[in-house]
Amino acid sequence: MSFISQNKFLALCLIHVFLIGSWSADSSAEDAKPMSPPGSIEFIGENLIATANGRFDSWRIVEGSVDAQSLESSWVTVEVDLSSVDTGIDRRDAHLLQADFFEVARWPKARVRVDGLSRSERAEGGGTYFDANFEIDLHGLTRSVRGEVILLSKDPLVLEGSLVLNRMDFEVGPPPSRWNPMAIKAEIPVRFRYEGE
Question: For the chain, what is the domain count?
Fold first, then answer.
């Protein structure tokens, strides 16, 4: 697999981390600490030839307020240590940290604020659907992306969700090219699941 495709994996993982972390608990900067959330943070990157999976191992909630009874008023900010990316291949992970991808020497952290939840009309399979805003600060650029959160249970809190991240909005990696089968697609689908205690 090309190193180019690794960029997509990292960006996708980053968003999953933000989403999962955003629902774990009320938190403030004083008591924020790195932790592994209960649930899953999964990302998939692909080009015409290959598909890869990965995750981030280190992140923390720096501030927020989550109310399972009223998600519309909930918000959270999550900080991710970009150097903790794990795609299962050390050489690929090391390349993702370099200047042509995430440039962690310059931007070691990424942040996402999740807020603006509003109940969606969508109703499939169980759960309550919400549209949500994800304000992402990545690679020195801040962009807002709309996504979806599904409330599956209030007690314990169980959430799933998804969004699509365009890596070119953050100038991460080279642009896609139809002439290069190893080029990563610009749009990256993201999915997550959170299971509270």
Answer: 1
Q: Which residue has the higher pLDDT, 105 or 60?
A: 105
Reported pTM: 0.76
For the domain that residue 65 is a member of, what is the CATH number? Answer: 2.40.128.110
CA atoms of 101 and 191, how far apart (whole Å): 22
Asked if residue 182 is part of any domain, the answer here is no
Amino acid (1-letter code) at residue 67: D
CA dihedral 101, 168, 11, 81 (to 10 degrees): 60
Which of 2-6, 20-24, 79-83, 142-146 is the most confident on average? 142-146
Q: List Cα–Cα distances, 187 to 74, 164, 183, in angstroms.
A: 27, 6, 12
Q: Is residue 122 part of a domain?
A: yes
Residue 64: predicted pLDDT? 83
Parent domain of 159: 3-175+189-195
